[in-house]
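Risk mitigation, structural track. In case the binding assays with guanosine-5'-diphosphate fail to produce interpretable data, a predicted complex structure has been prepared as a fallback.
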Amino acid sequence: MEYLSGFAAIVGRPNVGKSTLLNALVGTKVAIVSDKPQTTRRRILGVVDEPGGQLVCIDTPGIHKPKHALGQTMVGQALGALAEVDLILHVVDASSRPAGGERYVAQRLAAVATPVVLVLNKLDLAPDVRAAALAYGALHQYTSVASVSALAGTGLTELKRLCFSFLSPGPRYFPEGTVTDQPEHLLVAELVRERILLHTREEVPHAVAVAVEEMTERASGLFYVSAAIYVEKESQKAIIIGQGGRLLRQVGQEARLEIEGMLGVRLYLDLWVKVRKDWRNDRRSLAGLGYEPGRR
Ligand code: GDP
Ligand code: MG
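Fallback model:
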C-alpha cells in the first residue's frame, strides 16, 4: 500500500472544541484549551501518524468578527488555511444550534473548493444529534458528516479513518514521532498562558500575552526559563500577581509541573508581569509576540 499524506484545517467559531479535537487526534497536547473564547491565537500544527500515512492537522483561531488588530490577524490565520489543504473539518457544537457565527463560517467555506467534513462535537452534551446534524448540515454542501466527543474520545477512530480517505499518496512531511512544529519556547509560553486563562475572568484572559525571553540549560536536564506576561493595564497586572503574589506563584507552579512532564526536563520558571498599553492594537507588539497576519 502506498503511503498517504496530506493536510486538514480545523475551523469553526470560537469555543466549539477545535483545539481539544486537535489534541485528541494527535494523542498529545499540542494546543492549549480553555472555556474562554479566542484562546487559540495562531495556527497550530499537529501531526497524526498512522502506519499507512500521515495527516497534518492545522488548528486555527476561531472565526469571528474581529474587534482589534489581534483579532484580525487571528481570523486571517484561520481563513488563510482553507485553500491550501486537502480537507477542512468544520467543527460545530452539537449541543447548540447554528447562529450567526456559523453562517459566517459557512459563507467563507462556500468560497473554496476544498471538501468539508461537518464535525458535530460535544456529543456527550447533545440531547439530539440527528436534529443538530440536520440544522448544521443545511449550512453548506458538506462532503461528509462525523459526530465526536473530543473531550470523551468518542468517534475519533472513525473520524481519523474518514480523514485518511481524503488523502493521496505523498511524502511523510514530519519525521515519525513529531507531534507539532511549534518550537519549545512557544509551547512553554502557551502553557503559561493556559494557566492564566484558567484562573482569570472577564477581560483579563483576552488582555494577556506571554513571551519566553530566555531559555537556557543550567545543568544537565535543568533549564532556566524567564517569561514575560504582558497585560494592558496596571489593574490587570495586580490581578495576575494576586494578593501577596499568590496567583502568580500558583500559575508558575502549575505551569512548571506541566512543562516538566511534557518536555521531560527540570525547570526553574521565572515569571514577570509587564504592562504594555494596548498591545492588541499595536502591530509592532503583535509581530514581536509572534502574532503574524494570516494570508487571505
Ligand atoms: P476552541 O476555541 O474551538 O479551540 O475550543 P477549545 O478546544 O478551547 O474548547 C472550548 C471548551 O469546550 C473547553 O472548555 C473544552 O474542554 C470544551 N470541550 C471541547 N470538546 C468538548 C466535548 O467533546 N465535550 C464537552 N463536554 N466539552 C468539550
Ligand atoms: Mg482553540
